[in-house]
Amino acid sequence: MRIRDVDKEKLVITNAIDQIVRDGFQGFSMNKLAKACSISVGTLYIYYKDKDDLIQKIGAVIALKFFTGTVKDFSPEMSFEEGLWKQWENRAAFTMKYPKEVAFFEIVKHSPHSDIILDSIQEFADFRKIMKEFIDNGLRNKELVPMTFEAFWSVAYGPLYTLLNLHTEGKSMGGKPFKLTKEIMKEAFSRTIKALTP
Amino acid sequence: METELNSIHVFKTNIKNIDPACEMRKTLDDHSDIKHWSIDHEDVDCVLRVVSDVLKPETIIGMINQFGHECQELN
């Protein structure tokens, strides 16, 4: 009789993320993963059909965690400035709390797995709807300058993700040690808001 | 609904690749007691995974052997 072992599943997910972040998809194998977890390959195949299935299932768990975290205490009804700041706070908190998961998802993003993962999560559709509503409200209330979506996104989140990348690296230009603080985030945010509002 | 863990059977095989029109594929596809099956050709063990509430591992091994392939249960 097989019983689902939640701790073992967690161990598999943690090790898989570690290996994929370190070696990429090419260097990753079910056999290596089983060894790292001290479980048999057979057990691994009970939970996952193959390598692609494993990558997609883990990707879905992370994506779901990201969407849930990003909309926490956020409402599309918020004023544009308040809502965007909440987005910055939530996205920064997620990246700082789960740096490996974020690195894993960066790898997935540039692979064909990405669409399969996002299509498998109902919450992704909800997330997109909420974010669209937020932008539409901003435009209607004249708190936001109309622009191409990609141009909007790059201005609205580009500075944040640049700072978060530096934070994850632990250093900025010229190797200078760097740690992202709320003050620095606020500094960048105040200029970002100016660029987006009429 | 999540698949009941006890209905998943996993085997090490020597099935390196599989012709879409081959008899084995047809037999597994059409078998009324098999809910899903797949082979991971990328893996060194060419792992065959069969989901069935009814079939015993020995029966599945017998079926695969009939098609001239090696098949051994992975525990």
UniProtKB/TrEMBL annotation, chain A:
GO terms for molecular function: DNA binding. Residues 29-48 bind DNA. Keywords: DNA-binding. Residues 6-66 form the HTH tetR-type domain. It comes from the Bacteria. Transmembrane segments: none annotated. This is Transcriptional regulator. It comes from Flavobacterium aquidurense.
From TrEMBL, chain B:
This is Uncharacterized protein. It comes from the Bacteria. The lineage of its organism: Bacteria, Pseudomonadati, Bacteroidota, Flavobacteriia, Flavobacteriales.
